[in-house]
Amino acid sequence: MNAQTGANTAGSPTPLPKAPDAIELRHLRAFVTVAEELNFGRAATRLYVSQPALSRQIRALERLVGCDLLRRTTHRVELTLAGEALLDRARRILGDVDEAVSATRAVGGELLARIAQYWEPFGDPDPELGVLRTAYEDLHAQFPPPPEVTVRPANAGGVPSLLVRTEQPNDTTVLYLHGGGYIAGSAFGYRSLAGALTVAANSSTLIPDYRLAPEHPFPAAVDDAVSAYRWLLDTGVEAENITLAGDSVGAHLTVSALLRLREEQLPQPAGVVLLCPGIDLHCGTLDAQLPSAQPGTVSGAHFHRRIVPDYLAGHRDDDPIVAPLLADLTGLPPLLIQAGTGDSHLTDAHQLLDHAQAHGVTARLELYPVETHNFHLFWSFLPEAADALEQAGKFIRAQTGRARVRSSA
After folding, report:
1. What is the pLDDT of residues 164-207, one digit of tens each?
2. Tens-place pLDDT, residues 104-163
3. Domains 21-116 and 127-408 belong to one CATH topology
4. What is the phi/psi pair of residue 153, to 5°?
């Protein structure tokens, strides 16, 4: 079979002409309803449109297909031969579309319910810290790393870490800082999400097991992130080949680390990927745009009530290192920010975008139609999460390439 024959509609010896793009489903629904009723008045009533509007839709369809579909007289409406040829095909088209939409809605509802089940253990408004940490690890344990990666331990400048790699990675290294409200999460737990990003970028990825609060309050996590970054530089990885990435509060830590790198006059990485960033530690905008307790959403109130006392532990909250929205972001590398449209931290993402652009930073916000925070965690079954990570991988590869061009110029 040659390429031309392969493109044919079933049983057609030659390629069929493409239907006009202007034909819309409303035209076909109008035609099928009139053909079934053989009366414009009854058809208009069924479709909840006026009879003149229905007549205009039929005339528009006839102009687009180039022939009469209905024969109209004062007393009756009849199908032409062309109309008879279209009717059964139009019914099949509309049936297929209705079935596709119904299936999509069902799957979407099932996926949202599945995500809600994963978040269910976090419904306790004030759990013990040990219970909270265990629940967070249990959540991540349900998602193994992708089979395309290998995982091995690494000591990154004194910071216990995991190194995730594809079989034949490019020169790019991602330094991934996990979420968990600064009080939970681990490199081991994040093998799945970081591994999926590794595959998308075809990179090596270092996940530092940075110290957690309240045992190790600020600046322990920032110190560990910077130590891991220094270790990469010391082992010969060029800054132009490094991308910093983080999810939720890990995105906050990522920006804090960038500001610390600038303070210490260390070279900035090629780019930054921030997944569902939780930038405001006080969570002043949390859920501002959402009704509470939507299915599939998690407010993480227990995380947020602990962050300031446990992580800051009395440190001033207007320090730019811990308040990125108050910091001068001039000189930071390009940012890719991703969030779900139903993310409880969506306002954080918008504010960070505006703040970064106001300081001359190249920044882009990508929104995905998902009703939960940190939706990337569910990449193994959520199409939007898989798409988002694929776009993040493309961004990482592109930024690394641009950084190399700039450094060689």
Report:
1. 999 999 999 999 999 999 999 999 999 999 999 999 999 999 99
2. 655 667 888 888 888 887 776 677 889 889 999 999 999 999 999 999 999 999 999 999
3. no
4. -75, 155
DSSP code of 307? I
Could you tell me which of 273, 233, 269 has the C-alpha nearest to residue 407? Answer: 269
Task: Provide the residue count of the chain.
Answer: 409
Which contiguous run of DSSP H or E holds residue 120?
A: none
Long-range CB contact pairs, 89-95, < 8 A, 24+:
90/28, 90/31, 90/32, 91/32, 93/28, 94/25, 94/28, 94/29, 94/32
Question: Residue 257: how many CB atoms within 10 A of its CB?
Answer: 26
Q: Do 210 and 225 touch, CB atoms closer than 8 A?
A: yes
Quote the CA–CA distance of 70 and 197 in Å, as a whole number: 56
Separation CA 115–CA 373 (nearest Å): 10
Is 364:271 a contact under the CB 8 Å cutoff? no
Domain boundaries, the chain: 21-116, 127-408
Q: Which CATH class is domain 21-116?
A: mainly alpha
What's the confidence (pLDDT) of residue 34?
92
pTM of the model: 0.73
Q: Coil, strand, or helix at residue 149?
A: strand
Helix (H) or strand (E) holding 125: none
Q: Give the number of other CB atoms < 10 A from CB of residue 38.
A: 13
Q: CA–CA separation, 365 vs 89, rounded Å?
A: 42
